[in-house]
Amino acid sequence: MSIKINRYKCGYCGACVGVCPSGALELVETWVEANDCCTSCGLCAKICPVGAIEVNK
Amino acid sequence: MKEMYDLIVVGGGPGGAIAAKNAAELGLDVLLIEKRQEIGDPVRCAEGVSKICLSDHIEPDPRWICADLTGSRIYSPDGTMVEMSEEMSGGEVGYVLERKVFDRALVDQCARAGAEVRVKTRATGLIMEKGVVCGIYAMYLGEEYEIRSKIVIGADGMESKVGRWAGIDTSLKPTDMETCVQYLVTNIDIDPQFCDFYLGNEIAPAGYLWVFPKGENMANIGVGILGSKSGDHRAIDYLDKFMRDVYPEGRIIEMVYGGVPVSGPIEKTVSDGLILVGDAARQSDPITGGGIINAMEAGKIAAEVAADAIKKGDYTTDTLNEYETLWRSTIGKEIEYSLVVKETFIKFTDKDLNHLAQSLSNVNFYSLSLKDLLYALFKANKKLLWDLRGLFRDVVNNNFEFKYKKNQFD
Fold first, then answer.
1. Residue B53: its pLDDT value, please?
2. Which residues are in the 4Fe-4S ferredoxin-type domain (chain A) (predicted)?
3. Which regions in chain A score pLDDT beneath 50?
């Protein structure tokens, strides 16, 4: 798993959670948590409206 | 928090609150949980809502209405403006809400109806026995709880987990979601009674940019672009460009980010012991992104079906399928129509959009109904709108009433 979420940029909207095909992400109040199910598919990085997520495939 | 309820509602947005309120009024023992500390905050919405059906659920109150709109204007990429006035839409346009106050008023109603409400309480999983949902695992102030119920309603929004835990695939592809950024902007000159929509691939690819007034000199200005179009340029980049070009004197006093499902109806929204409502069930309108009214309608239906099921003592999919039937035959039908329009719309070039807007330049809107407007648009652009011929036929033949959706645009 190589997902990096810039929590200073993130607006905790949860768009990344909605597109995550493996259910690896979760929005908890004002931060997003990623678990080991992440496959580094990169959809979360693509959908983020402000570019707060970086995924190294 | 008790160990057992008739019904647990996960999520304190409009869908969850209306479900909990109606269920409590029907005599059920209800728990509503909201993972955030505050109901309605942070906002993730453009806050516009049609007046139609709103008062079925809550009496309009000046405390949560920021603007009472008399019409809307749509701008095509070359600046051609199409104005839709209140007269045209039968005196029913919309309000711009203060969601922080509105959502709280809804949850207040549900608490007064007898539901137990817990904020800062997050569902972390479903209690399942032989494939049947019988409650939730929850975390409240860092402590874990096991809470049982006869039925669970998942109203946990766009980032819904409840459906997935029960084996319902609610994950969205980037083509199924509008990715949005909005600023609350002050110090700007706007018409406080009109909402503006800007279309075009340079402005908002496969989406739109909105300016919704929130009183004098203040507006929600936001943009939504289709997720598949996001990458090098993101929603925030499009919005910043618009702000520089159109409202350079504007001052941003709030930032809102969000994702809006535009997938249209998902395959199923119930399973044994479980019902999904609102954004969790992908019930927002694929064209406008509006979801508040649909969520509230669905929440009410879900509560009634749940109450019947509990009376019968049968919480299986067979019984809860009544919810599927009811929402798909009302709001679901409209969502399906909107999906057809959206699929056509996202293929339009800027030239096509200009052509559509220009074809309406000689039409007197004040004398037209929405039905006539759609027909005029189709007549002038038959080739462009050929894919929508079935929809126009239904509209003209009065087979399809815009009962819920009319100008809904939150």
1. 80
2. 1-30, 32-57
3. none
Instruction: Quote the pLDDT of residue A26.
Output: 95
Side chain identity at B50, as an amino acid letter? Answer: S
**Mean predicted confidence (pLDDT) in B193-206:** 95
Q: What superfamily in CATH does domain B2-68+92-171+263-337 come from?
A: FAD/NAD(P)-binding domain (3.50.50.60)
Better-predicted residue by pLDDT, B83 or B137: B137
| Coil vs helix vs strand at A53 | strand
Residue B256 to residue A11, Cβ atoms within 8 A? yes
Q: Tell me the C-alpha distance between B382 and B385, whole Å.
A: 5
Third-level CATH fold of B175-259: D-Amino Acid Oxidase; Chain A, domain 2 (3.30.9)
How many residue pairs from chains A and B have C-beta atoms closer than 8 A? Answer: 91
For domain A1-54, give the fold: Alpha-Beta Plaits (3.30.70)
Find the helix packing angle between B292-312 and B14-25, rounded to 10°.
30
Nearest to A18 among B35, B36, B172 (CB): B172
In a mutational test of the A interface, the residue from B35, B162, B171 whose CB has the highest number of chain A CBs within 10 Å is B171
> Maximum Cα–Cα distance for chain A, whole Å?
27
